[in-house]
UniProtKB/TrEMBL annotation:
GO terms for cellular component: mitochondrial matrix. GO terms for biological process: mitochondrial respiratory chain complex III assembly. GO terms for molecular function: protein folding chaperone. Residues 5-58 form the Complex 1 LYR protein domain. InterPro entries: Complex1_LYR_dom, Complex1_LYR_LYRM7, MZM1/LYRM7. Pfam families: Complex1_LYR. Residues 84-125 are annotated as: Disordered. Keywords: Chaperone, Mitochondrion. It comes from Hondaea fermentalgiana. This is Complex III assembly factor LYRM7.
Length: 125
């Protein structure tokens, strides 16, 4: 089952890099080589927990490639242009600054929730 998930992840990454570098043959070629090399390094990994972690990393890498990166091209005016960039929904919550003491506590322990939304704050009523 893990092998199938790894193969599916590899294919998803190939498709994501195809979308990210569409029209850039050099970037497509080099990213394919780098992607293949990264998978080959871990081909003989036997630890199921480590493999599961790597499968999660595949999903994060795919998401980053599809939603966190853009490719810009130099135009004839000497400026860089991005084409077909879709806006990303960042949510509707208002973000509040974090209290330095809260940040220090976060850094010592659980790192989740470092950026907090005003919806997460208890009301002072």
């Amino acid at each position: 089952m893990q092998k199938a998930a790894v193969v599916q992840g590899y294919r998803r990454l190939l498709r994501a890099r195809g979308k990210l570098f569409n029209g850039d043959s050099r970037a497509l070629r080099e990213s394919q080589v780098a992607l293949r090399a990264a998978f080959e390094v871990n081909r003989h990994e036997a630890d199921a927990n480590r493999i599961n972690d790597m499968i999660k990393d595949i999903g994060e890498a795919e998401d980053m490639m599809l939603h966190g990166l853009v490719q810009a091209r130099l135009n004839e005016r000497g400026n860089y242009e991005m084409q077909d960039v879709k806006p990303v929904d960042l949510g509707s919550g208002e973000f509040q600054p974090i209290d330095p003491a809260e940040l220090e506590e976060q850094q010592r322990g659980d790192r989740s929730g470092i950026i907090s939304s005003s919806k997460d704050k208890p009301s002072s009523n």
